[in-house]
Amino acid sequence: MPRINDVGGQDGFGPVIEEPDEPIFRADWEAHVFAMNRALIGRGVYNLDEFRDAVERTMSHESSYYENWFRGIRTLLEEKGHV
Amino acid sequence: MSDDHDDSPIAARVRELEAILEEKGLLDAAELDRALEAFAHKATPANGFRVVARAWVDDDFKAALLENANEALPSVGLSMGGGLQVQRLYVVENTPQVHNVIVCTLCSCYPIALLGPSPTWYKSPAYRSKVVSHPREVLEQFGFTLPAETEIRVWDANAETRYMVLPRRPAGTEQLSEDELAAKVTRNGLIGTAPV
């Protein structure tokens, strides 16, 4: 069964909205999540594929991009017994 | 980064997790600051603009780029490494007959090393779902109308393989230097949602 991230060809997500001059990160915590993920993968706490899988199985279309990242990271760390 | 005064609940949860990980020795705040700083300065679309300008002025480089982009990049001082793992890069060339667009329908795969972090719309379900089924309509939302006879090819990236579009060189730019040509290129042009 396709996961909810597999949206190619689906209808109902509305128009594409481009935001001119958007910042790389919308808030400082997004930069923290981004950097945290790189560091944890860099240290081998989990790998890129485990991260992708965790985000895909825990994500919600109602959450923002980095909220979904954070949920995935948190889930992986819980499953691996780190938190 | 260590100076963070955001009061939102998510910011607090991120800080809390960071503190736990630091206490366990899995994270180092100074290391995060340095990594982010280096990333912000290195991964910008200016890299992609340089690649395109060189391809426009140097036919041998262009041929090498289209043949094997990973091997061609070091000659302009770039690579697809430096990230979490090296990814295969394909550069796809726009022609009068064929226009290329890139997407990642599953998530947000993107050649960050050459384009910098991706814009929010690239990661949105709206773009990812629709550009594969109705590319012409999506391009029109960007104010970009292609002739009806132009074929549109949509390339779906994944964790191992990334794409970048090589736009067509604008008419009337024969006298421009490589730097001036690079300044004509836009990030959306490298994604395929703008002509250049």
TrEMBL record, chain B:
Pfam families, sorted: NHase_alpha
The UniProt record lists the keyword Metal-binding: yes
InterPro entries: CN_Hdrase_a/SCN_Hdrase_g_sf, CN_Hdrtase_a/SCN_Hdrlase_g, CN_Hdrtase_asu/SCN_Hdrlase_gsu
Keywords: Metal-binding
Residues of the Nitrile hydratase alpha/Thiocyanate hydrolase gamma domain: 10-194
Keyword Metal-binding: yes
Family, per entry: Belongs to the nitrile hydratase subunit alpha family.
Name by which UniProt lists this protein: Nitrile hydratase subunit alpha
